[in-house]
Specification:
Blueprint (H helix, E strand, L loop, with lengths): L1 E6 L6 H11 L3 H8 L8 E10 L2 E10 L3 H5 L4 H9 L5 H22 L14 H17 L3 E4 L2 E2 L4 E4 L2 E4 L3 H6 L5 E2 L10 H10 L2 E2 L6 E9 L10 E8 L6 E8 L6 H11 L4 E8 L5 E10 L3 H11 L6 E5 L5 E9 L2 E9 L5 E5 L1 H11 L3 H12 L3
Parallel strand pairs: 1-4, 4-9, 5-8
Antiparallel strand pairs: 1-11, 2-3, 6-7, 10-11, 12-14, 12-15, 13-14, 16-17, 17-18
Helix pairs in contact: 1-6, 4-5, 5-6, 5-8, 9-10
Length: about 400
């Protein structure tokens, strides 16, 4: 599985992200050509340079404004931005991702200033450089097409900033609003390390925020920021890597003592339809000595939401737990065994040393048993003898 890990030890901003993406392998010509589809070429140009800061070399991206366009269009509202994006020739995935990021900022600004979305006139987010940062982030994410995006906790910084609303404390109120329920760090950087735009990009792109990640590193990119205060380099480090998806297996469980036993076979069928690898029931005794059932589901992480929602919708449970596990399996394949009664599928499992196990598929055996009028146990004995000669 192809992953990107954002190491935000010095925060994240829109221009730092673009620099890191180019440094990681997105061609600047491709990015500039895609951004031209916004039909805003008369308002800006992009300057990309290699540079260094406190011993780290990376890529710096600057949005150069033309003809005082910042003052001309700084009050674009959400509808203006939506029109620019959806009237462009960008592909639909990029359009949707761009608007998802903008909506994170829009909702935060609406909440902070106590206005409805349609009433909010964005200043920083409506400015041309923020449009380029956000749409550029969507273009780069679409280009790289990774399976998973991981972020470290975000460093927010400290101090004060001047903006259209006056002098505000760091983090800005909109940044706080965007980052609700997200792991963050404060005060290691003496300036605004994570901007509202950077926060919105992170929250929209991230599949997970975590400190510890296990993957094989393939490439590293550095996006250079604009602030050189303090001892910590103002750079965004982004790592392209690979994870063995087979390791990402989880067990989800819940305990139930108030549901009819007639429901369980149906629930199990639905869980398999939603992506469960295995589902099993265990008889347990719960508090006050009440007998109950524990439902256990083995699954890959990508199916977690579907499985969780199924348990809440289709059972009486009000709480679920999960934990990550490792699983060890024999190599396996299915062979088609010719018999007197027709073909029967047999699962063949084997170790590296050549030791082999065979198991006839139950549904095939049941079908033959019924159609031929042979007791199932007798059919198993017959198949077992045939397999000794395979």
């Amino acid at each position: 599985m192809k992953v990107i890990y954002y190491d935000c030890f010095s925060g994240i901003s829109g221009d730092m992200n673009l620099g890191a993406m180019i440094d990681l392998g997105v061609k600047k010509e491709y990015l500039i050509n895609e951004l031209s589809k916004l039909n805003l070429q008369d308002e800006f140009s992009i300057k990309v340079n290699r540079g260094g800061i406190k011993g780290i070399t990376g890529t710096k991206v600057n949005v150069i404004l033309h003809n005082n366009s910042e003052n001309k269009h700084c009050h674009r509202n959400l509808n203006d931005i939506r029109d620019i994006i959806y009237n462009s020739d960008l592909n639909e995935d990029v359009k949707k991702l761009s608007m998802d990021i903008f909506m994170k900022v829009a909702r935060a600004e609406s909440k902070v200033h106590g206005k409805e979305l349609k009433e909010v006139h964005f200043h920083e987010v409506g400015a041309i450089d923020s449009i380029i940062d956000i749409v550029g982030a969507a273009i780069c994410a679409n280009f790289l097409k990774v399976d998973k995006v991981l972020f470290s906790p975000l460093e927010l910084g400290k101090g004060f900033i001047k903006c259209a609303h006056g002098t505000l404390p760091v983090p800005a109120p909109a940044t706080w609003e965007i980052l609700k329920d997200i792991p963050v760090k404060l005060g290691n950087i003496p300036f605004e390390a994570t901007t509202p735009t950077g926060a919105a990009i992170a929250v929209t792109l991230a599949d997970e925020f975590q400190d510890k990640c296990e993957f094989v590193v393939k490439k590293i990119g550095y996006g250079i920021g604009s602030n050189n205060k303090g001892d910590i380099p103002n750079v965004l480090r982004v790592v392209l890597g690979c994870i063995d998806i087979k390791k990402e297996l989880y067990i989800m469980e819940c305990n139930i003592d108030d549901m009819s036993s007639e429901m369980y076979p149906y629930v199990m069928d639905v869980l398999f339809e939603k992506g469960a690898i295995d589902v099993y029931l265990t008889s347990i005794f719960m508090k006050k000595g009440r007998p109950g059932i524990m439902i256990s589901i083995l699954y890959e992480h990508e199916f977690e939401d579907e499985i969780k929602n199924t348990l809440f919708k289709e059972t009486s449970t009000i709480g679920i737990r999960k934990y990550k596990i490792d699983r060890f399996c024999l190599n396996r394949e299915t062979i088609n065994l010719k018999t007197t009664y027709g073909n029967i599928n047999v699962k063949k499992s084997y170790l590296n040393d050549g030791n082999v196990k065979y198991k006839p598929e139950y549904e095939d055996m049941k079908r033959v048993s019924k159609s031929e009028g042979i007791p199932l146990i007798q059919l198993y004995d017959y198949i077992t003898k045939l397999l000794k000669n395979v």
